[in-house]
Structures are given as C-alpha cells and as structure tokens.
C-alpha cells in the first residue's frame, strides 16, 4: 500500500506561478504565532438559510391549498412541504453560491418539486386509489409550486446580490506577491463580487505593490482588526499557510481557494468570482471530520482486535528469523506538513539513517528473507499502521504519507503534490485502488489524491476500503 517501494517514474513539470513546496512543521510548533486576540473576533456576515426555506415552504403550502384534491388531506400538504425542504437541504440549495443566481439552481429546484409531487401521487394511488391524483392535478401542482418557489428565490437572491455590491466585505489575499496582487486587482475591478481586497499576505514585497503587503503575523492581525476582514482568498496551496488559515478560520473568516490560472484538475463545488475558479476551503469542517474520525476509530479498533493474534505471530517469526527490532519506525509528513512516526513491520534493514530517509527501497531486494518478502508482497507489513490511525496520526483512507526528503523534492517537481497535505494521510487511497503503486507516475497520484480530497464523502471512503480489501488477495507488492 505504500508508494515508497520503487523508484517513481521520472517526468512531471516544474512548479509554476511561484508556488512554494509544502512546509514541514515541527510536531510541537504552534500555529505560526498567529492567533486572534481574545474578545475581538470578527462578526462575519453569515448568509441565513431561513429566507430560502421560508420561500419553499410558502410555495408548497400555496400549491397544496390551491388544489381541491390536496385540500382534503392536510397531512399530504405537510408531507409535501417537509419533503421538498429536506430534498433542497440535502442538495445544499439553502447554501447559495457567493453570487447566487436563480437560473443556476432552477433545474435542481424544479426537479425536486417534480419528484416530490410524483411521490405524493404514488402514495395516493397505493393507499387511496379512489382519490388518486389526475395528470392535470399533478401538472398544475408542480407548475404552481415551481413558479412560486422560483419567484421567491429570485427575489431573495436579487436582494443579496444588491447588498453585496453596495457593501462588499474586506478581504485578504494570501499567496506569492505578484500573483496575489494580480488577483486582488481583478477583484477590485469587479466590486459586484462582494469582495474588496485590502491587503496581500506574502513572504516578501515585489516593490511595485498597489495593496499593502503583510509579511508577519502581527501585521495580519492588525489588518484583520482595523479593516474588519470577512474573507480570505488563497492563491497558493493551502498547506503552505496551514497554521495561519486555521487561525483565520477560528477568527470567523470565510476561506476561499482561488485558482489564479487554469485548474490542474477538476474541483468539486467550484464557483466563479471575478472570472476566477473558486471553492470554499474545508478547514474547520467539523461534521465531516467527526464522521471520518469515527469511521477510523471504529474500523481500526475492530481490526486491531481481530488481527492482534496475527500481529503477534508476525512479530515472533520476524524476531526468530531476522533478530531484534521487528518494528520499523520512520518519520513521515502528515496533514498540514506535520511530521509523525509511521509504524511498519521491519522487512529489511537500511545501511544507515541517511539511506532510510533518502533512498527508495525495492520490494524485491535479494537480502530479504522469504517471510519478509511475503509480508511486503501482501502488504501485511502495513498492518501496524492501524495503530497510527487509532492514535490520530493517519486515517484509513487518504493520500499516502511520504518522508520529508521526498515531500520537499516532489513538491517542487510535481504540480499539486503539496496540496495533498490538506487532508489527513491514509493507509490506502483513491490512487492506490486505481493501481498507482510501485513504478507508476507521481503526477498521476497527485491528481487522484487531490480529486479524492475535493470529492470527499463517507461513502467514497467505504468504497475505497472495500476495494482495498479485495485487492489484498493480489500479491502486487507494497
């Protein structure tokens, strides 16, 4: 399951746009010395879901009460209302885009209304055949509710866009100075976006800056307070500023990742602001993190109980055949560039620490014993990483972690490699179940890993785990 067993395929393109490689942070490092002063957090403008939900509720009630067949069954009107609201909430239709537009969500709204009315007609036909809804009633109900709902939503969106244009929120742009200034200038030319950049956060100034360049945490804090910053636009890999972004999120700022040029891979949940592809950053997404962590603890704990006798057998055989030191410990880079100690069964012994940190070992090394080669070939030497998952250093599913030396090297060579570290690393991942192990392209692994992060769901994790379990019977090596 690891990527370190063979030398990676050469190739890949040099990094562009001034993106820096992932920063490897000390495990005890604080959030970069950046924290929002107590008692002075920003009052961020939050978009309430109530107006849109109220519009949908009124549309359902009005359409239901207007039809005689439905009026005789008040509970059916209530069911109509609840189902539509639940379907719209499930589709995130109460969390509109930064610049909401009725035409963008029109198909989704009308489709859910039609599905709800069809379900209601099916219930009537099954339990009250004598009062089954006619095709005329079904069409009128769908049309009436769709018209009322769309008219109300259009009004709500128009009022919000007007408010954004009249009172744009202050924002900071984080990234290389030249790129950040260019993105900031574009947003200033389009005030209807509702975002007004007031400063750039960069390592150093270019000397031709139109907006002030903030290079220290203290300057960022000062700008945050004085300008009432509500949003942060990130134009570099988020992991580069992980500690600062976490602190800004805790301060109440909305975080947006902005692609200053063409995206290198498809991104779910993209929006367009000032002509740039943008997506909200998931830092602080507690419910998703809780669900993923719950799955990790439940599955890793259960597996450790089941395979603990097998682990003891492996340890005993390794001790008898290869001597002491059956557990191999190695520093790897995890989420936000933080190092941790990865555990494996020792299948071979490097010459020294330098070789262990900088050499890509080969799974079929001749000095391996038959038992060690068996462990590597079947990936059973990875089972100890269940302890890393249980302790919270890793997840069951995520991008595979790598050593600091190779993280720095690949981050400079392969586009998107540093961005993999915005999610917890894992024992297996989307790249691995697509055969990207061994002597395969690092660039392809980056693309699959980033696609996994952008489209993350609990169901996707479960599918990857099932596919990994099925692949364990194939001796493809680690």
Give an account of the 3D structure.
This protein is an alpha/beta fold. It folds into 3 domains: 50-165, no CATH class; 168-260, NAD(P)-binding Rossmann-like Domain (Rossmann fold, 3-Layer(aba) Sandwich), CATH 3.40.50; 287-471, no CATH class. The chain is 48% helix and 11% strand. The protein has helices spanning 50-66, 68-71, 74-90, 102-127, 135-166, 177-189, 217-227, 242-250, 286-322, 353-358, 370-378, 385-391, 404-413, 430-433, 442-454, 458-471, and strands at 169-174, 195-201, 213-214, 231-234, 254-259, 271-273, 276-280, 327-333, 339-345, 395-397, 426-428. Mean pLDDT is 79; it is low at 1-21, 25-33, 37-44 and 264-268. It is a multi-pass membrane protein. Its main location: membrane.
- Our estimate of the beta-strand percent is 5-15%
Q: Please provide the ordered H/E string of secondary-structure elements.
A: HHHHHEHEEHEHEEEHEEHHHEHEHHH
Structural class: alpha/beta
| Helical content class | 40-55%
Side-by-side strand order of the widest sheet: 3-2-1-4-5-7-6
Q: Nearest-angstrom radius of gyration?
A: 27 Å
Average pLDDT value? 79
**Number of DSSP-assigned strands:** 11
The end-to-end span amounts to 5 Å
The low-confidence runs, each spanning 5 or more residues with pLDDT under 50, are 1-21, 25-33, 37-44, 264-268
- The structural domain count equals 3
What is the 3D form?
Answer: flat
Q: How is the main sheet built?
A: 7 strands, mixed
Can you count the helices? 16
Protein name: Exopolysaccharide biosynthesis polyprenyl glycosylphosphotransferase
Transmembrane segments: 74-94, 106-127, 294-318
GO molecular function: phosphotransferase activity, for other substituted phosphate groups
Pfam family, one: Bac_transf
């Amino acid at each position: 399951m690891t990527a370190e067993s063979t030398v990676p395929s050469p190739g890949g393109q040099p990094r562009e746009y001034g993106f820096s490689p992932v920063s490897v942070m000390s495990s005890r490092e604080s959030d970069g010395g950046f924290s929002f002063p107590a008692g002075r957090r920003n009052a961020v403008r939050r978009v309430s879901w109530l107006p849109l939900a109220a519009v949908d509720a009124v549309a359902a009630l009005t359409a239901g009460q207007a039809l005689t067949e439905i009026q005789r069954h008040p509970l059916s009107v209530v069911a109509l209302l609840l189902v539509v609201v639940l379907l719209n909430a499930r589709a995130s239709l109460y969390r509109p885009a930064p610049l909401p537009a009725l035409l963008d969500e029109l198909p989704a709204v009308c489709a859910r209304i039609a599905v709800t009315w069809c379900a209601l007609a099916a219930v009537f036909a099954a339990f009250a055949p004598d009062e089954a809804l006619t095709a005329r009633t079904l069409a009128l109900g769908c049309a009436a509710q769709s018209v009322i709902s769309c008219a109300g939503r259009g009004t709500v969106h128009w009022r919000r866009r007007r408010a954004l244009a009249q009172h744009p929120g202050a924002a900071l742009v984080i990234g290389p100075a030249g790129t950040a200034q260019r993105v900031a200038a574009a947003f200033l030319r389009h005030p209807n976006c509702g975002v007004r950049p007031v400063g750039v956060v960069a390592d150093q100034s270019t000397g031709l800056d139109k907006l002030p360049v903030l290079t220290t945490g203290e300057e960022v804090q000062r700008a945050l307070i004085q300008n009432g910053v509500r949003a942060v636009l990130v134009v570099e890999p988020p992991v580069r500023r992980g500690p600062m972004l976490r602190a800004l999120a805790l301060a109440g700022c909305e975080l947006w990742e902005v692609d200053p040029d063409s995206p290198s891979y498809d991104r779910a949940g993209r929006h367009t602001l000032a002509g740039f592809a943008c997506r909200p950053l998931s830092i602080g997404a507690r419910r998703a993190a809780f669900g993923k962590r719950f799955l990790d603890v439940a599955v890793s704990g259960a597996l450790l109980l089941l395979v603990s006798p097998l682990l003891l057998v492996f340890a005993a055989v390794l001790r008898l055949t290869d001597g002491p030191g059956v557990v191999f410990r190695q520093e790897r880079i995890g989420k936000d560039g933080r190092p941790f100690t990865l555990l494996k069964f020792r299948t071979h012994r490097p010459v020294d620490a330098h070789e262990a940190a900088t050499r890509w070992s080969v799974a079929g090394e001749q000095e391996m014993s038959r038992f060690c080669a068996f462990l590597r070939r079947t990936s059973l030497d990875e089972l100890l990483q269940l302890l890393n998952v249980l302790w919270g250093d890793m997840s069951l599913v995520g991008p595979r972690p790598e050593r600091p030396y190779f993280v720095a090297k690949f981050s400079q060579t392969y586009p998107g490699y540093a961005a993999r570290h915005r999610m917890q690393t894992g024992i297996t991942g989307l790249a691995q179940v697509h055969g990207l192990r061994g002597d395969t392209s690092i660039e392809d692994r980056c693309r699959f890993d980033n696609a996994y992060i952008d489209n993350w769901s609990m169901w996707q994790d479960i599918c990857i785990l099932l596919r990994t379990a099925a692949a364990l019977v194939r001796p493809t090596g680690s």
